[in-house]
Design goal:
The complex is a heterodimer of chains A (308) and B (327). Chain A is built from eleven helices and no strands. Chain A is an all-alpha fold and 308 residues long. Chain A folds into two domains: 68 residues; 232 residues, MetI-like (MetI-like fold, Orthogonal Bundle), CATH 1.10.3720.10. Chain B is globular. By secondary structure, chain B is mainly alpha-helical. The chains are: A mainly alpha (308), B mainly alpha (327). At the A-B interface, helix 2, helix 4, helix 5, helix 6 and helix 7 of A face helix 1, helix 2, helix 4, helix 5 and helix 6 of B.
């Protein structure tokens, strides 16, 4: 603003002369610069508007189409065969819970252990390699994990199973938990570790009892974010957990999952199934968002949990 | 159990120092061994994935050789497999996605880091981040039931009838709903939050003094961004874009649901296509012959290699930017 004020006042003073031409051209340049400035800043506002539009549209359609079909039956009944109206996705919701449980039982210990290693061996050669490969694993398409789990755990047994699906999800979970754990442990002040060691704690008790414990709320957040991510996955499950139209919680049988049920219904030609798909998507998204919000909450109370 | 009790004894100050040293070495060794073991799970898992997928894809790769990637004939009954259309579709849909998402994502990131009033910043950042939390199958559902009809009835007919661009090869042919364009648009929405998150991060890493110096020299606010901020953030932003590319290349469910799944190379964006990921998702459970399974595994192996390369480049670029700014 100050930069533009000066030449314009100069233009007022000058009469028709070289100086005037120069000043006029400067003023023109300035005007152009100002226009460019406002246009581009305006465009970033437009970008922000356009970028938030899809989310608003998706949420709106989910609520509009799905809310009417989410009822008691949806949470308590299993799917009905094509043509029959009604039914729910109770088995899918339980199945998703089961798959997440299997994935967490494997993924959490491995992820937290690896994260501890990375945080403590910060600059070591193996740590660098593991950190890098963890990022590579994180970048792998989930469908590749799906065919891998099929090749390892379904093909030899000639049988789809919840276990194979859960382990495919665990492979997705490990790099996420590893990274979160490492970052959270690095946030713990070195002085805490030193204080514990100075008090005569052994290294392993310092790591587990003091450092890990301090970082725990952050790690819980990381774990919940990972759970929210895998709970909505479909691609690793379609050749492993396979889906199931009936009740099953056995790890060794094909199991239903909410995302797979949505997929099946969405690509069907039936309107009634589309309604169920919307309802399922609404419930799945609500589930994912609740877990994500819980994750935020866990971090917020980090310093409230210091304690004894 | 024994280790725990030793540890407990060591922790109490009354324990002789020598016992402490002896006890700590056992507990520490076990702890060290356990964490090292968990850390080693990651490289082992990755090697196992690479080995299993490549070994399973090998019969198809060795039978068709380089032709597997260049031929476009895919016939499960005759045992002929050429993955060129899927590779073509993967590249084209990802390019469309990046062309749409990049300006938007960089614009949002600049808006959030430089211009946004405080009360807008939080909600907009939250909304954009939330895009990354939506499951792929929900995008697919929205895509197939809302986006595809909208593109078919509104956008495609507008381009054809109002703009009279139907003669261009990229807009040629009948307007199917499921199409390369639909896949590109859905992918654009999906990789936008990744690009914008990385861009925001690298923009915030540019020192404040650099902005103040530009403003002090008389730059407008946009000139400050363009001349002083973006150049030092450039390779980080490119890293973010490539990270988004990695997501787009491997995205499966949403694309499978809107791309139409047709094994054919067509220049027109209005025509159905295939991507490597959607071909696996769509055909794997129907593959009855060993060769068909092997061909799909080989496609998976190709996807593995491409995404690893893309991710490595992206991480390197982001890491380099962060380091050059002394972060």
């Amino acid at each position: 603003m100050t930069a533009s004020a000066m030449p314009s006042s100069r233009r007022d003073l000058a009469s028709r002369s070289y100086r005037d031409v120069l000043a006029a051209s400067t003023a023109r340049t300035l005007a152009r610069r100002r226009v460019v400035n406002h246009t581009m800043i305006g465009l970033t506002y437009v970008a922000a508007l356009v970028a938030t539009l899809p989310l608003i549209l998706i949420l709106w359609h989910l609520l509009e189409q799905g809310a009417t079909s989410v009822n008691w039956d949806f949470f308590t009944k299993i799917p009905k065969p094509a043509g029959d109206v009604g039914g729910g996705m109770a088995n899918g919701i339980v199945g998703t819970g089961m798959l997440v449980l299997i994935a967490s039982l494997v993924g959490l210990p491995v992820g937290v252990g690896a994260g501890l290693y990375l945080a403590e061996q910060r600059g070591g050669k193996l740590a660098m390699v593991v950190r890098f490969l963890s990022d590579v694993l994180n970048g792998l398409p989930s469908i590749v994990l799906g065919i891998f789990a099929w090749q390892m755990l379904v093909r030899p047994f000639k049988h789809f199973s919840a276990l194979s699906g859960g382990l495919a999800l665990a492979a997705m979970m490990i790099p996420l938990v590893t990274r979160a754990t490492e970052e959270m442990i690095r946030l713990v002040p070195v002085s805490m570790r030193e204080a514990a060691l100075a008090l005569g704690y052994t290294k392993w008790r310092t790591s587990l009892g003091v450092v890990l414990r301090t970082a725990l709320p952050g790690i819980v957040t990381g774990a919940l974010v990972a759970v929210a991510r895998i709970a909505g996955e479909t691609a690793p499950l379609i050749f492993t957990a396979f889906g199931n139209q009936f009740w099953s919680v056995s790890p060794f049988q094909p199991i239903a999952a909410l995302p797979m049920q949505i997929y099946l219904y969405a690509i069907s030609p039936y309107d009634d199934w589309h309604r169920h798909a919307w309802a399922g998507a609404l419930v799945l998204l609500a589930l994912v968002l609740i877990i994500s919000l819980a994750a935020r909450f866990a971090t917020r109370s980090r310093f409230g949990l210091g304690g004894d | 159990m024994t280790e725990a009790s030793i540890g407990a004894r060591v922790a109490s100050p009354a324990t002789p120092v020598t016992a402490g040293i002896e006890g700590s070495s056992i507990g520490d060794r076990i702890y060290r061994g356990a964490t090292t073991f968990f850390a080693l799970v990651i490289p082992t898992l990755l090697c196992l994935i690479a080995w299993e997928v490549f070994a399973a894809g090998w019969p198809a790769l060795s039978k068709f050789g380089i032709g597997f990637f260049t031929e476009s004939h895919w016939d499960a009954v005759k045992g002929q497999f050429g993955a060129a259309p899927a590779i073509y579709g993967t590249i084209v849909s990802s390019i469309i996605a990046l062309l749409i998402a990049t300006p938007l994502a960089v614009g949002v990131a600049i808006f959030l880091s430089e211009f946004a009033p405080a009360w807008v910043r939080q909600p907009v950042a939250f909304f954009v981040d939330l895009l990354a939390a939506i499951p792929s199958v929900v995008y697919g559902l929205w895509g197939i039931l809302v986006l595809v009809p909208f593109l078919r009835d509104t956008v495609m007919s507008f381009i054809r009838d109002e703009l009279h661009l139907g003669g261009l090869p990229i807009f040629a042919g009948p307007a199917y709903g499921p199409s390369m364009l639909a896949a590109g648009v859905i992918l654009a929405i999906m990789c936008l939050p990744y690009i914008s998150a990385v861009t925001r991060e690298v923009l915030l890493a540019v020192p404040r003094s650099q902005r103040e110096a530009a403003l002090a020299l008389g730059a407008t606010r946009w000139e400050m961004i363009w001349d002083a901020v973006l150049p030092s953030a450039r390779s980080g932003i490119i890293g973010g874009i490539i990270l988004g590319l990695g997501r787009a290349l491997g995205e499966t469910m949403a694309v499978t649901m809107v791309i139409g799944n047709r094994h054919e190379i067509s220049a027109s964006l209005f025509q159905p296509g295939y991507t490597m990921a959607s071909q696996i998702a769509n055909e794997f459970s129907e593959a009855t012959t060993d060769l068909h399974v092997s061909a799909l595994m080989a496609v998976g192996a190709g996807l593995f290699i491409v995404t690893v390369i893309v991710n490595v480049i992206a991480r390197w670029l982001v890491w380099r930017t962060a380091r050059s700014q002394g972060g």
